[in-house]
Amino acid sequence: MSKLKLKIVDFKPGMELKVKGVPKPNIDRFSINVCDSKDNIALHFDVRFDYLGEHRVLVLDSRKDEIWQKPVRSENFPFQWGQEFEMTITFADDRFYINLHDGHVLQFPNHLADKQYDYICIDGEVTIKGIYVN
Which of 70, 80, 81, 128 sits a CA distance of 20 to 30 A from 54? Predict the structure, then answer.
């Protein structure tokens, strides 16, 4: 499993993070995480093709001081092995809006309540074609 950790310029409320990528064939999962400088995860967006007994489900969670919080699952699963996706994460003060390439929008609370995040971490076998912050 590969891991990519990018230091970004202050991801603050009102900003958007766009990620384009392609999941590699036959992978179990990949994740996109919005993190602070202490490795706390404000948004853990986990794409599970077949992982821990879960098939084709999205899991959103957060982690503070190495403790996972309350996961939220979505059965809407627009990801396919080998097919490009584009998603946008919009940071609002109290939540994240995740716009998926099939038009669905997911919401997840900003449990850490920070006003900016400094890192984007991507785990798993996914080819990243572009990351844009504006």
Answer: 128
Q: Please state the pTM of the whole predicted model.
A: 0.94
Is the CB of residue 85 less than 8 Å from the CB of residue 91? Answer: no
Phi, psi of 34, deg, nearest 5? -105, 120
Which two tokens mark 14? 């009102």
C-alpha angle with apex 64: 4 to 130, nearest 5 degrees? 25
pLDDT tens digits for 45-90?
999 999 999 999 999 999 999 999 999 999 999 999 999 999 999 9
Say which residues have a Cβ less than 8 Å from residue 101's Cβ, sequence separation at least 6.
Answer: 78, 85, 86, 87
pLDDT at 109 over 80: yes
